[in-house]
Amino acid sequence: MSNTPRPTSPALSTKPRRASGRLAVIAVLVALFVFGSEVVLSSLRSRNLSVAFETNLRFTPTPLPVGTQPTATPTRNPDATATPIPQVVFLKAGDEILVRVTWDYRIGPRFQRVILGASANNGDRAVAQATAAIDCGAAILSCSGTTLIPLTYEIPDPNAASGSVGIPWPVGEYKVLVEQSAGGLKYTTIQEKLFRVQAQ
Q1: In the chain, what are the helix, strand and coil shares in percent, each to the nearest 5?
Q2: Which of 52, 151, 154, 161 could be joined to 100 by an S-S link, Cβ 3.0–4.6 Å?
Q3: Rounded to two decimals, what is the model's pTM?
């Protein structure tokens, strides 16, 4: 009996090669589709955030000299309307500063919660502070909106053990900083502006 090996059929030997070739082509096509989709989404994805400053007449008394405090808490003007701030900012003592933040986010897959912080600083001392948040919830395609952050000069409340009370701005210069923190990361400054209160 001969021990010569039986010849392998050429048709049987080429089938595994054809199958593996098809798999390789499919894998390449899938990779190209995923990459192309990500490129398209990246071109559409945007995180636009803008900051504008306005003033709103809150208090009606005369300006206070530096270092003095009122004997009574001024009342808020219920008929006050917001006024856009010009390039050179001169703040009236009875005004409050309104920081208007507008956002327009496009294409997720998710939008991080953003904490907005605004502060008015006289030298190295913060005399007014307030925060707001951008929370898009479960939105994945788009998220837009606007919020107002009011800033009023504050002093410790003389009639309470804690807390503060707003008063008219003393004469001086104030730097307003607007910052953001996304996903619990460190705050970064996104806008700043100088305000001056002159004696009248």
Answers
A1: 20, 40, 40
A2: 52
A3: 0.65
